[in-house]
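Task: complex structure prediction.
Instruction: return structure tokens for all chains below.
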Amino acid sequence: MAVTDAPEKGQSPQSSEATGSRGRIEPAAENFFTAAELSRRKFFGKALAAIGAAATAGAVTPSAAETARQAVQEGLEKNLPPNVPEWSKILGAPILAHPYGLPSPHEKNIVRRESPGLTRTPHSSVAFTPLQNLFGIITPSGLHFERHHAGTPEIDPHQHRLMINGLVKRPLLLTMEDVLRFPSVSRIHFIECGANSGMEWGNVAVPTVQYSHGMLSCSEWTGVPLSVLLQEAGYDAKRAKFILPEGSDGAGLTRTIPIELALDDVLVAYGQNGEMLRPENGYPLRLLVPGVQGVSSVKWLRRIEVGDQPWNTREESLHYVDLMPSGLHRQYTWIQEAKSVITSPSGGQRLLDKGYYEITGLAWSGRGKVKRVDVSTDGGRNWRTARLQEPVQTKALTRFRIDWRWDGSPALLQSRVMDETGYVQPKYNQLRAVRGEKSIYHNNSIQTWRVAESGEVSNVQVS
Amino acid sequence: MSRSPDGSPLERSQGRGSGLLCLCAALVLWLPSPSLAEEPKFGFGRLATPEEIAAWDTDVRPDGKGLPKGSGSVSFGQEVYDAKCASCHGTFGEDNQYMAIAGGVQPGDIDRGRASILATGQPLRTVGTKLNHVSTLWDYINRAMPFAQPKTLTPNEVYALTAYVLHLNDILPADATLDEKSILEVRMPNRNGFTTEHGFMSKAGKPDVKNAACMKDCVATVTIASELPESAQGMHGNLAEQVRSFAPTSGVKSGRAPAGASAAASPTSPGLDLAKKFACMACHGVDNKVVGPGFREIAARYKGSGGAEPQLLAKLKAGGAGVWGPVPMPPQAHVSEQDLKTILTWVLSGSPTR
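Output:
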């Protein structure tokens, strides 16, 4: 892709070369350090001169690449064997250097990001999870994607109340102490925004998996089954057809949820990955509706009303409705159908060398468990079945992995999930044939990453 | 176990002589039977009072349930709109900086109950073309608008704003007035534009798109149908700085400055933090005009004119219009004087972002 080959004006050619040059397969060692880090170590000039020489050669010239590696390593050798690293010869930081622990400063790239131009205000916007560098299935709480409709409120848990009203015998007002006294359960579930991948219905629009699939996260949630609270309030089992959860934020976000779903596996959650919810994820209380588009998992939950008709709220009539080619909108499209994506290698990355790679990614289904994930490296002509990380849990992310030996020729990587209902993740042309390109929501197409001869991976769509 | 219907704490109703009651409660836990399960199992919390419920339960359904008494005219709605809404939505509701609230309704749509523009290749999505029930408009204005001061409008103002927005969409005439009864007679242009005939409503729902789990020679040819457009390249910043610096793959360098890393990653100024907190940034960019002028444009205008501060502070509190154009800035009386001063000082100092 042209982006790397032609740095923009003002871009130092040196720094652009520091991460590699066209057509050259890079050895790993020199990539461990960014230009800035090299600079800090005062080896900048020497290392880059050598790398620049390698680049000028325009192809893989072992001697130039070797020189580059040597230059970097010379500077580092005081920390490399046979020397003893600096940090092994001094005292480290004492306990409580950070009473609440923080990631290593070297992890500064792994943060949530916004997609420029997607929304008009940061108070009703999205921050995407960096799926490209996460392991396993749990999203660290600080990296869980954000989607707010009127910003994140700062809520004092002592002044927070949950009201349950409507078609109930006993309208309840619960404090947080009350909520925490009920018997609780912990379960691992994903949350995916209904608009995840929505920017790509018509064409490729974003470069990396963070932006294409990052409105997706998975946590261990702890809370009270909603069914327990509805029974406690004495809901009217004959007349109750729907519930309406309501947020305590400025948007007062509301969504209609059918009573069958509400009584099934919905949680009134306060715990996320062992601690209280993060403010961005609903502190101190939220709804968690497994398998359903994220907007139903109402954050900052202050009220649940039981009723006998849907409410047709703003977030289920002006938004979160799927426009079909006929001009009709599909309404109350709750379920998130099965979907998968390869997170590594993925768009915006570059393979370091030929040889072995583990292709890995995530699969999930709003209808239950992932049954199988197949992976193609030739754009969907041929498929192999990937390994699934056990235990596979219902409506949770499932990590898949498969071995791959890259021979240096162009490849098209795809993954395709089948869930326990037998449903198979569709292709773009199949989705568009039914739903057109304007429906915004529920894009669960197979994703394609193109690996170029240079090792560069980019986002493409195939037909 | 009993609860006090007036909402007083549970313990008040658990006096002496409630031994029998406690025994019954214990039996509920031990011997759940259909009749006894009607009783609360845990007895946590208290009953919500009717006043509490009325204050929080403001939602309005399509059948009108939840609408309070009140009324408002199109002309009153215009007054409220110009003062509190036009700054974001545009004088005629046409501004799509936020969702456009007017436009796109075609002759014949109201009779048909379908917004015809939605079936075209350019489906203009506005309140007029998209919404099926007017109750939703009332409910949303009431609970969430104005964006930075939600839940501050009176019922009469909400009826008036609803009437005005409908007028902007050619659904109501200029002399119309809406109240809790007449609002139910409004015919929305897209009232027949929604369907629940799909497989997304339950786990057992039938999917509309099917693929097969073919394993070998599944497609004859594969062609690249789409890749990142030239115009979008670089838009998301330097991808090399968005991956771990040691991994089986490195990041691809793209030549622009990184965009939108989390604000927490870099120190910011108190003024910027407050400007974000109080939603100033909903209408003002640091450099550029969004709805109102960019902060640095303001700093440039008042540069060197000593004594502008008190005058601008008064403007922030009371709102104003005319200096930068006709779109008024709403009053910011809800922000403390101290915070307003911090923001103002920050703006006039050129809005340093860290």
